[in-house]
Amino acid sequence: MNDNIPGIEETTDSEVKDDVHEPPMYRVLLHNDDYTTMEFVVEILMLVFNKPPEQAVEIMLNVHRKGIGICGVYTFEVSETKVNTVHSLARQNGFPLKCSMEKE
Questions:
Q1: What gap in Å lies between CA 30 and CA 26, rounded to an integer?
Q2: CA-CA distance, 24 to 62, in Å (whole number)?
Q3: Which terminal CB of the chain, N or C, has fewer other CB atoms within 10 Å?
Q4: Is residue 17 part of a domain?
Q5: Residue 2's pLDDT is what?
Q6: Residue 6 included in any domain
Q7: 3-state DSSP call for residue 95?
Q8: Residue 98, beta-bridge partner list
Q9: In a domain, 80, yes or no
Q10: Which long-range contacts (CB under 8 A, 24 or more apart) does 55-60 make?
């Protein structure tokens, strides 16, 4: 038995969405203050942001000289976690180090 009826044409419409959206990215920033030591900032950069010592010193000097330094660019959740980790470690060590994030 043939299911095709002569004179009737079947078509299938299918929509394929190729729109893949990357998640928004956020810069994590360290801010200069008069109390947090340079050594502690370098430690934070190496521990929390996995920066090699040379790069950690370079970022720390940006924080010291320019008032702010970019630690990295991450998704919202990762950025938020890193900011909270920096604040927690700074408070545990008696420093008022400020860390923030901003959308790229």
A1: 13
A2: 25
A3: N
A4: no
A5: 54
A6: no
A7: coil
A8: 31
A9: yes
A10: 59/30
Residue range(s) defining the domain that contains residue 49: 25-103
Q: How far is CA 40 from CA 18, 45, 50, 84, 87, in A?
A: 46, 9, 14, 16, 12
Overall number of domains in the chain: 1
pLDDT digits (tens, 9 = 90+) for 77-88: 999 999 999 999
Reading the block at residue 11, the tokens are 């078509």
Element (H, E) at 35: none
CATH no. for residue 65? 3.30.1390.10
3, pLDDT greater than 70: no
pTM for this one? 0.80
Res. 14 pLDDT band, cuts 50 70 90? low
Q: Considering the chain, what percentage of its residues have pLDDT values greater than 90? A: 79
